[in-house]
């Protein structure tokens, strides 16, 4: 919403500077989002008189003028032809800066000195096009800045209006706010309409068939008009608030809308079939061409203004081509009405047709302001288009709207706001807002808001007005008394934070992807046609196709992040994401939003450095992170089950992570085809964990194991084993001895290659023996160790090396 | 014999002062004091002395032996000390070479800001609540006093799903879900992901908010101002100016936008604050009675306030991020700075 400082001054007297006014409005809730000092830099463009005009000696199309700028006479070369000696013109002096950062300098044009430039309206930013230079009225005083003497110097305010303040979609509305704040009232003169000739009733009839959607419809007729361009002041005023000039009549309706907030429409009276206006709902499928030349298909909930032949306007939104004001129009019907906001909004939204008019109607206009706006427009049309206003006006207003009487308790307002204002101060504030206030005997106030404040319906609305006008700055800051103790973060919340800490400690960077993804994400992961994750939740109105479905897996986003980073030459990556996925549920309206935790590893194991290895990261690095994570959560008895859990993993390098029959997640190397689908050249290792399963299986640490005080002894054991023998089997066999003396057994070397027969591998394990109650002798250890060795040989068919 | 002893003493003194290493000192020591050394050899001559002379010379031998022993002991420890110093000198390393660093991980700045804000409010007695991101119109709009066909709905461009649910446009539905489950008094905050169909340098179609709600007897707008003032001071620094100005949200009345003095220019006016000296960081207000009506609370009996803030906005101010999209590009060159 745009208003100007000068325009506001026509409606209310105030002393505030533009900056002070902006602050005042912002603190009233009308946030000034932008200010523009129009004409501020134009003081070097002054009124001047052309004393003499002669032909340029060296150029046919140029003239050399002697121009009096009020102080001295200067020579100026000019290319325009539309002026003569004696004319008053706009002289941009040396040093002036015109719109477009055009600096005026002393120059020589074809050998003739030129001390400035005679300006056109276009050059001054006053018009989009102009022929020749601007000829000013002869009354202006030479030497004074042009913008100042034309009254163009102004400050434009851009106000970010909240949707509740429909009343402020006008200059008078903003002026009322200023008046209420500074304790004055707006200037609201009676409008004299020069009526002549026959009554309006002799030229037009109006019938409203749907008074629910159109409770009030008023009209006036103006005959004998001449459609012409608007005068300068009107064009400029509309331009200041961002409205393009059309012609004198349409401009008047727009001006009055901007001034009073009441949208108006002007019909060409002679085009109205049978000189009749009928306000009714549209017929289902009725076709109507609005004045933007678009064909609109209407539905029964739309409200239309019709003549005897059919629709001539989409009520409150846009007029029709068939009754539009054109250059040959002479009779005009001015419409001023009040339409039901929700109806206007429904039609406007359905048609995607948002206009200055619909914007105001859907927020709610002033039903008592209908006639004032109509009169103002009729008087202005008569003045500017030279017609005569027919006697009287039509006003179909069967049920007079009565603003609510609200009972208001001053002490309730004080309690809610935490202030102590007297009843009297509150009454003054409310009356300043043009509410009528009656004091009841019990201290309660009966308050009736003015008709334009449709947002005030309840006591709380009045409380807000008190707070607003008294000033939010005048409310103290206090601390509420605590009657609640905050809960400890839930287990779920604590685990989320704990998991992040564990992964960060493992050098992983947390990423956040959008929750919506591309519909072909499942294809890129090679998911089967029956994979439930293909049943995605689709957005009805996505911004782009790539963000049109809610994700059911975090893997695609993770791999995209890997690819994007690699394209930036960040090659060594450890990324994780812990967010929700969105799963459709059968027979349930609301989807399931479980949290998943995924991680990706690629590149080198260690960071680049003078003493660091450049070995590639592999499956076991990823597995190690998950093992540590599960250990910190005290989740034991974890099985790594080779079951080809996901299509997006390498079948030989992936597994499920199980506890009993519960799958906690999966881990593996990304399948080469998937890798290619995401544009990745090097292997990527990922894990995916289901957060809810971790919450369920997570255990609190029960008891610690007291370390033994006796010395340990280690024995190494190297064996040749079949390639298919799993490490898990070997360790299980070692522990299967169930000797308390085995403190720990670990695989410390795995080797395949030279010296080892094909189909075999060399595995070395280290066993640490220790007792809790004594120092073990070599003999004791040897007995256990040889039992282990025998077991390995007999049960696993390994050969000891 | 006395002369011989005296000469031995001289020789020892000279040898020690000439010695250049621990080795030569050790050799000389053995030569003078060893079992087959020169002093031992001299002592064999003690037997040939008279009974009168024997104790006197014997004493002299002892004192000279002690002297020579001390001499060697001192020289040896000085030599060892020197050798150690010299060895340590030669072992010098280049301590300016970079350390061998383990990989350092990082939490996303959004996660960090949520944790920081939650922690501050935990101190005020606010518990954390959560709710679904895919919501019913009723929780997201209607119960929050956005009637159907109300222009206030234009304030929040909404993504709808094909089965006519929506992606929540704010964390405020968590207020409704909490109030339906819990009776007052209550203090909660609800951090979460929200969505609006809007995308440019300052808008992302997905972003994060933290909602706050406090309901109790006699909670006032002044209390809201108090809580938010202390919160902004804890988050942005003790002296941060705070300004509340009137605004509009359907679910609060009176409503306020909360501005802080620009953390970039200190309130003088700059590009970030659009020359106003103020930065809008959250929206707030007293819970509208219409909302209580929807959750079966008695608006005459209790009162309360709600507030909501954009996490990205706070992160951008805290870290001087100009383009919100940077937060969602997942570039490790950015993430590793947190």
UniProtKB/TrEMBL annotation, chain A:
What GO molecular function annotation could you give as one example from this UniProt entry? phenylalanine-tRNA ligase activity
- Tell where it localizes: Cytoplasm
Which EC numbers does the record give? 6.1.1.20
The source's domain of life comes to Bacteria
Q: Which residues form the B5 domain?
A: 401-477
Q: What is its main location?
A: cytoplasm
Q: Which SMART domains match?
A: B3_4 (SM00873), B5 (SM00874), FDX-ACB (SM00896)
**Residue span(s) of domain TRNA-binding:** 39-147
Binding-site positions, Mg(2+)? 455, 461, 464-465
Q: Per UniProt, which keywords does this protein have?
A: Aminoacyl-tRNA synthetase, ATP-binding, Cytoplasm, Ligase, Magnesium, Metal-binding, Nucleotide-binding, Protein biosynthesis, RNA-binding, tRNA-binding
Q: Which InterPro entries match?
A: aa-tRNA-synth_II/BPL/LPL (IPR045864), B3/B4_tRNA-bd (IPR005146), DNA-bd_dom_put_sf (IPR009061), Fdx_antiC-bd (IPR005121), Fdx_antiC-bd_sf (IPR036690), NA-bd_OB-fold (IPR012340), Phe-tRNA-ligase_IIc_bsu (IPR045060), Phe-tRNA-ligase_IIc_bsu_bact (IPR004532)
Instruction: Show the SUPFAM superfamilies listed in the entry.
Output: Anticodon-binding domain of PheRS, Class II aaRS and biotin synthetases, Nucleic acid-binding proteins, PheT/TilS domain, Putative DNA-binding domain
Q: Which PROSITE patterns match?
A: B5, FDX_ACB, TRBD
Tell me the first and last residues of the signal peptide.
none
- Is tRNA-binding among this UniProt entry's keywords? yes
Q: Where is the FDX-ACB domain?
A: 708-801
Q: How is the cofactor bound?
A: Binds 2 magnesium ions per tetramer.
Family under the similarity heading? Belongs to the phenylalanyl-tRNA synthetase beta subunit family. Type 1 subfamily.
Q: What is this protein called?
A: Phenylalanine--tRNA ligase beta subunit
Q: Which species does the entry assign this protein to? A: Pelotalea chapellei
UniProtKB/TrEMBL annotation, chain B:
The residue ranges of the Aminoacyl-transfer RNA synthetases class-II family profile domain are 111-317
Q: Which domain of life is it from?
A: Bacteria
GO MF terms listed in the record are: phenylalanine-tRNA ligase activity
Q: Per the annotation, how and in what number is the cofactor bound?
A: Binds 2 magnesium ions per tetramer.
Q: Where on this chain does Mg(2+) bind?
A: 253
User: What InterPro entries would the database entry show?
Assistant: aa-tRNA-synth_II, aa-tRNA-synth_II/BPL/LPL, Phe-tRNA-synth_IIc_asu, Phe-tRNA_ligase_II_N, Phe_tRNA_ligase_alpha1_bac, Phenylalanyl-tRNA_Synthase, tRNA-bd_arm
Q: Which Gene3D superfamilies does the UniProt entry name for this protein?
A: Bira Bifunctional Protein, Domain 2 (3.30.930.10)
Q: Which reaction does it catalyse?
A: tRNA(Phe) + L-phenylalanine + ATP = L-phenylalanyl-tRNA(Phe) + AMP + diphosphate + H(+)
What is the required cofactor set for this protein? Mg(2+)
UniProt keywords (A-Z) are: Aminoacyl-tRNA synthetase, ATP-binding, Cytoplasm, Ligase, Magnesium, Metal-binding, Nucleotide-binding, Protein biosynthesis
- List its EC numbers: 6.1.1.20
Q: Which family does it belong to?
A: Belongs to the class-II aminoacyl-tRNA synthetase family. Phe-tRNA synthetase alpha subunit type 1 subfamily.
HAMAP family, per the entry = Phe_tRNA_synth_alpha1
Report quaternary structure and partners: Tetramer of two alpha and two beta subunits.
State what protein this is by name: Phenylalanine--tRNA ligase alpha subunit
Q: Which organism is it from?
A: Pelotalea chapellei
